[in-house]
C-alpha cells in the first residue's frame, strides 16, 4: 500500500514521516526527488539554465541556486508553470523508481511525502492520502524560523499551494500537528494500526 502524506509548507510533514518510520513504514520525500532531478548534469538543470541563464547556477560548484530560482518563479506564475512542465514529469518518473525499490524491501506500507501531492497529480500514485494540518499562522512562523526566507516569499509559496480547506477536503486521514510531539505521535500510532488492519483484510 502506498499512502500519500501532504500538508502546506511548515506543517511538519518530514517530522510526521519520521514518526511513521519508527513504526516500520518506509517513505520517500518528493522534495528530495525534486533536488535529484535538478542535480548538476541532469537534463532538467540544463533546460533551466538555458531558460534563465547563469544567474541560477552556483558558480562554486555548478549546482542550482534554489533561492534565485524560487524568487523568479514565485513572482511569475508563467515561469512557475514552465518550470513545473519540465520538472514534474521527471520527478514522477523518479518517484516511481524509488517506490518500486522501497516496496521490494518488505515495509508494510510506503509513504509518498509531497507538498504538492494533489497539485502535481502525484495523488494518482497512492491509495490513501494523509493531510498534516496546522493553522496558517503556525506555517508562517515555522517556515520563517526554519528557512531564513522573507515573509513575502513564504506567502507566495502558500498562495501557490492549495488552501487549507481545499487540502482537508481531499484528505482520507488528517493529523493535527499544531500540538506537541507526543500528541502527533499518538495520531501516527493510531493510523499505523488502522493501515495494518486494512492490509490484513
Automatic annotation (TrEMBL):
<feature type="binding site">
    <location>
        <begin position="10"/>
        <end position="15"/>
    </location>
    <ligand>
        <name>ATP</name>
    </ligand>
</feature>
<dbReference type="GO" id="GO:0004140">
    <property type="term" value="F:dephospho-CoA kinase activity"/>
</dbReference>
<keyword id="KW-0067">ATP-binding</keyword>
<comment type="pathway">
    <text>Cofactor biosynthesis; coenzyme A biosynthesis; CoA from (R)-pantothenate: step 5/5.</text>
</comment>
<keyword id="KW-0173">Coenzyme A biosynthesis</keyword>
<dbReference type="InterPro" id="IPR001977">
    <property type="entry name" value="Depp_CoAkinase"/>
</dbReference>
<comment type="similarity">
    <text>Belongs to the CoaE family.</text>
</comment>
<protein>
    <recommendedName>
        <fullName>Dephospho-CoA kinase</fullName>
        <ecNumber>2.7.1.24</ecNumber>
    </recommendedName>
</protein>
<keyword id="KW-0963">Cytoplasm</keyword>
<dbReference type="Pfam" id="PF01121">
    <property type="entry name" value="CoaE"/>
</dbReference>
<keyword id="KW-0547">Nucleotide-binding</keyword>
<keyword id="KW-0808">Transferase</keyword>
<comment type="function">
    <text>Catalyzes the phosphorylation of the 3'-hydroxyl group of dephosphocoenzyme A to form coenzyme A.</text>
</comment>
<dbReference type="InterPro" id="IPR027417">
    <property type="entry name" value="P-loop_NTPase"/>
</dbReference>
<keyword id="KW-0418">Kinase</keyword>
Amino acid at each position: 500500500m502506498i499512502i500519500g502524506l501532504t500538508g502546506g509548507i511548515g506543517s511538519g510533514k518530514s517530522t510526521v514521516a519520521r514518526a511513521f518510520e519508527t513504526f516500520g513504514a518506509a517513505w520517500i520525500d518528493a522534495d528530495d526527488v525534486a533536488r535529484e532531478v535538478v542535480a548538476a548534469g541532469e537534463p532538467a538543470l540544463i533546460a533551466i539554465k538555458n531558460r534563465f541563464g547563469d544567474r541560477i547556477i552556483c558558480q562554486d560548484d555548478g549546482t542550482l541556486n534554489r533561492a534565485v530560482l524560487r524568487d523568479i518563479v514565485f513572482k511569475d506564475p508563467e515561469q512557475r508553470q514552465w518550470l513545473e512542465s519540465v520538472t514534474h514529469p521527471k520527478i514522477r518518473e523518479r518517484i516511481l523508481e524509488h517506490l518500486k525499490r522501497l516496496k521490494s524491501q518488505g515495509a508494510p506500507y510506503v509513504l509518498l511525502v509531497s507538498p504538492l501531492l494533489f497539485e502535481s497529480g502525484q495523488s494518482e500514485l497512492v491509495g490513501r492520502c494523509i493531510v498534516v494540518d496546522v493553522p496558517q499562522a503556525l506555517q508562517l512562523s515555522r517556515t520563517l524560523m526554519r528557512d531564513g526566507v522573507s515573509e513575502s516569499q513564504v506567502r507566495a509559496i502558500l498562495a501557490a499551494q492549495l488552501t487549507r480547506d481545499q487540502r482537508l477536503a481531499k484528505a482520507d486521514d488528517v493529523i493535527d500537528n499544531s500540538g506537541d510531539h507526543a500528541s502527533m505521535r499518538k495520531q501516527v500510532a493510531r493510523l499505523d494500526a488502522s493501515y495494518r488492519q486494512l492490509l490484513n483484510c
